[in-house]
Amino acid sequence: MTDRALYVAMTGASAMLRGQATVAQNLANVDSTGFQATLDATVAVPVTGPGLPTRVAATARTLGVDARAGAIRNTGNPLDVALKPERWLAVQDASGGTAYTRAGDLTLNANGMLMTARGQPVLGADGAPVSIPAYQALEIGQDGTISIVPQGQPASTMAEAGRLQVVAAKTTELQRGDDGLMRPLPGAQPPPPATGAALTSGALESSNVDVAGQLVSMIALSRQFDMQVQLLHRADENARATSSIVSLT
Questions:
Q1: What is the DSSP letter of 157?
Q2: 132 burial level (CB within 10 Å; 0-12, 13-18, 19+)
Q3: Which residues form the Flagellar hook protein FlgE/F/G-like D1 domain (predicted)?
């Protein structure tokens, strides 16, 4: 019984630590544009193997991300875009593949490449990184069309300079990678292009992290971790007492 209690307490403490790490990550991204909180839970999982199923492990399991939309704030910056619900902006990840984000705080580098604030190239409807020539006025339409007035030209010369690749997908149809970007679930097809109004220009979506709720979760997880550690100490004390009694007989 002692080793069983030790195992349950140990796995429980480990799950509480992982839960605290998830909450800490959420709190660290309170000010991250378009960030969606990670959802975590602790579940009981029977330990498989030969013999009777007498061991149950407590483990932390990631349930996905919170699909609720964050608050929209107007910035007036023509390069800022706030994605509509279930709409995602396609970007190029570090390996050259396609990934998706709701962070619409875009910038232009020295070469005129459209980038996210985290340095990922933004992809166009043709699948290639978006490059914008020098301009004196820029506008991004609700469907992702980028229109510019070329530098030195009158306003009447506004022309299309590209189009953002915006796709339609439910949050549950995607999974977040270690780089914070979203990708289709294993074996799933890439999400289809979005139709109609997909974004709001001159605005950004704030993080949807509930600060008060996350702080309450952190306190609860901390108390549960302390309880598991106390159980480990108590089981160890019982084992020592049992050993002493046996040695006297």
A1: G
A2: middle
A3: 88-147
CA distance 159 to 143: 15
- This prediction has a pTM of 0.80
pLDDT of the chain, 249 residues: tens digit per residue:
445 667 777 787 888 888 899 999 999 999 999 999 998 877 777 777 676 566 677 777 778 899 998 999 999 999 999 999 999 999 999 999 999 999 999 999 999 999 999 999 999 999 999 999 999 999 999 999 999 999 888 888 889 999 999 999 999 999 999 899 999 999 999 999 999 999 999 999 999 999 999 999 999 989 988 888 887 777 767 767 666 776 665
What whole-number distance in Å separates Cα of residue 122 and Cα of residue 131? 9
For the chain, domain boundaries = 2-67+209-248, 72-205
Report the greatest alpha carbon distance in the chain.
101
125: helix, strand or coil:
coil
